[in-house]
Amino acid sequence: MADALTGKIRESFVINQLQNAGVDLFYSEVGNFMIEDHYFEIGGPSKTTKQLKTEKNSTVIADGILVGSRHVIPLYLFGFLY
Fold it and tell me: Is the full-model pTM beyond 0.85?
């Protein structure tokens, strides 16, 4: 149960930060949400892009990491949008 709650908190945080920054986002069947033609999936440090392989424009927002990579953004960086 704690994992499901943690996931909801992560998603709520990112969505809140993006909406406060004036970004229009939409829920998606491929990832958690999309912005224009770019898909995003939110998860923990072990989250991979496997779920988003069908989409060329996709990024993972991962909690529990300090440094991102090509298609992975650390979740804490969205706090700077506040």
Answer: yes
